[in-house]
Design goal:
mainly alpha, abc type-2 transporter like fold, four-stranded mixed β-sheet, 65% helix, 4% strand, elongated
């Protein structure tokens, strides 16, 4: 999902020249007046003419199959009635316009037609004695006056490495979910009753067993990080190479440090005896919450101040700050100076959860339900 999103977005790589979209259209002119012909000529300059027979089935098929985005039917007598109504006599006739459901460009073409007819209406009202040809000529002169369009590249536009950095930011969700679920499976194996009993009666200290669990989880974490990071490098290498070596190492290193927090969360769940289902739910929910508060879905600057304060308690918030600054990093010294505090906070998040997991495991070991000291002290 993240690959498709990052690959499908346009990151400031706009064309240097503006070109208007030319929608396919057809006009069934049953009037043949100067006004109806002028409408046809106007549309021909705006879009791509598609020949369609004046038959109900053919017209329906053309719109339904997307052969045309806009179908206009000019009824007989439209030109004369339209000019008469423009000069204050009689009701204005209506054109029959049909849009394709597959594209919104038909609505744009319809708006352009109405704007052109507005010019014709104004020309006829301003010169009541003018002929149809003169009215159309005046409207065409007004329609030819258009604003110049220039493509300007914003200094803030995302270019170069931003496609890869966007991938890294959004990868916080699959990274968190995959590590919590995968490491949760490993920790869950140690919570099997038979295996837990053998560990309890063994000569191994609880702290030694916990460290071995963490080491096993760390191997899984590094593997998940390598897969996510490697996939991004493989797909967005042209974007990643726009970063300096220090910036690239900083971005990948920040991702590795971020992965320690879901590792610690998975270890905490294992110490509490959580099942695989619980680990799966926690991993996905925390992944979405972390990603939102990290600014991957909505820019943090657009959120209310209270939400920004809450977001600062999310590790992905600090990870995003690091990633966003990688494009400006040009040296190792600059990399450390600009990101040292955020990197330290990422480590503190992981350390805090890891310590909580050790305490929770110790308390559970001594509880009656775990078969520890409290169970032994219970009266028989």
């Amino acid at each position: 999902m993240v690959l498709f999103m990052a690959g499908g977005l346009n990151f400031g790589q706009a064309d240097q020249e503006f070109s208007a979209t030319r929608a396919p259209f057809t006009v069934i002119d049953r009037d043949g007046s100067a006004v109806s012909r002028a409408v046809v000529d106007f549309l021909d300059a705006q879009g791509e003419w598609v020949e369609v027979a004046d038959q109900q089935q053919a017209l329906q098929d053309a719109v339904a199959t997307g052969q045309v985005d806009f179908l206009l039917i000019v009824p007989a007598g439209f030109g004369e009635d339209f000019l008469t109504a423009a000069r204050g006599q009689g009701a204005e006739p209506q054109l029959e316009a049909v849009f394709s459901y597959q594209s919104a460009s038909g609505m744009l073409v319809d708006t352009q037609v109405n704007q052109y007819l507005g010019l014709v209406r104004a020309a006829a009202a301003l010169n009541p004695s003018a002929s149809d040809v003169d009215v159309v000529s005046t409207a065409n002169e007004a329609a030819d006056n258009s604003a110049a369009v220039e493509v300007v590249q914003s200094p803030q536009a995302a270019v170069g490495a931003d496609r890869f950095l966007f991938y890294l930011t959004w990868s916080s969700y699959p990274l968190t979910a995959a590590i919590v679920v995968s490491v949760g499976l490993v920790m869950g194996a140690f919570n099997r009753v038979d295996l837990r009993r053998r560990i309890l009666v063994s000569a191994q200290r609880n702290s030694s067993v916990s460290l071995q669990k963490v080491a096993a989880g760390l191997l899984v974490t590094v593997a998940v990080w390598a897969v996510v990071a490697g996939l991004g490098l493989a797909v967005f290498w042209e974007s990643a190479r726009c970063l300096s070596l220090a910036g690239l190492v900083l971005a990948l290193g920040a991702m590795l440090l971020l992965s320690l927090t879901p590792l610690a969360i998975a270890f905490l769940l294992g110490q509490l005896g959580a099942t695989e289902t619980v680990s799966n739910a926690v991993g996905n929910i925390l992944g979405m919450v972390f990603t939102f508060f990290g600014g991957a879905w909505v820019s943090i600057s657009l959120l209310p101040p209270a939400i920004r304060v809450v977001a600062s308690f999310s590790p992905v918030y600090w990870y995003t700050n690091i990633v966003e600054g990688c494009a400006q990093v040009s040296s190792w010294g600059q990399a450390l100076a600009s990101s040292a505090s955020s990197l330290g906070i990422l480590l503190l998040f992981a350390a805090a959860v890891f310590i909580a997991a050790l305490v929770a495991g110790r308390l559970r070991l001594q509880s009656a339900t775990a078969g520890g000291n409290s169970a032994a002290a219970r009266p028989r």
